[in-house]
């Protein structure tokens, strides 16, 4: 069978593959310490599950509007107004099958073959693959620890060409955990406005911040940048709802209408009763978010201290999300070689930086318990010392 050419241009998700391998090894009774998946280890908060169960009991099991339940779209718009100072109404919002789906809908709606999309590296691994699937061209702009793995206004300005359509901004970042300061966001916004391009701000980790770091939605900085901004977000990380597959895209009405038409012919509506759980997540107590954030903060410090005590590793301190992104270059190993040997020899699963466009790094998730962190880093230290 001859498959479509686009299939051969897309790389399978390394993060999902390694997470699946770790789970399979655990199922075989092997003691694996996994730092691979970007998935909180907490259960979904009880009040969110109760709201979905109530909706299920009430028979909310039928097809719904492709763009999402009206009550949820209204709740999301209120959240964006209150938390992010973005003047959106429900018509500016589409509910999607996870945050990833919101970005894919956007790519299909906005990017024509040959259009360029600027992506700072390290990047979340699915960004360039989505661009490829719709026939666009990813323009990768490398960053490093000297700028906190953040693109500068000068780099962005230099990367823009007449074919540039979209810039992808991710703060807090996956895989680095770095957060752009308000001043940095303002400077990038000015470049975007001057060039008259769109920006999609992936804000899935916005509530997971440390040490006084502040999240700023770029579209809140004025009408000119607001008109060029799209917001991608979801419920997976802040509310530990990864399996619920609930995300959203917010932006100009014409783009949201286009995304809704695309969704109507692909997935149709998101699971109806699950959307009522999302309403509860937004409108009821946020104490659960803070409890999880505090746990992540403690784990972050433990993992950071341990990593920086290992000779040969260098790890920048992240301001958000739940990842660390150490530099492994002193080991002499490329990231995939490092990760393959680590899981085979010491049963520790981490993600190679090559998946994020940074082959001299690895990504560790601390969305797991402290006992696993301590045991896994004991093994990691033993491995690295054997290679130095």
Automatic annotation (TrEMBL):
It comes from the Bacteria. One of its GO terms (molecular function) is transaminase activity. Residues 31-380 form the Aminotransferase class I/classII large domain. Keywords: Aminotransferase, Pyridoxal phosphate, Transferase. Its EC number is 2.6.1.-. Signal peptide: none annotated. Belongs to the class-I pyridoxal-phosphate-dependent aminotransferase family. Its cofactor is pyridoxal 5'-phosphate. This is Aminotransferase.
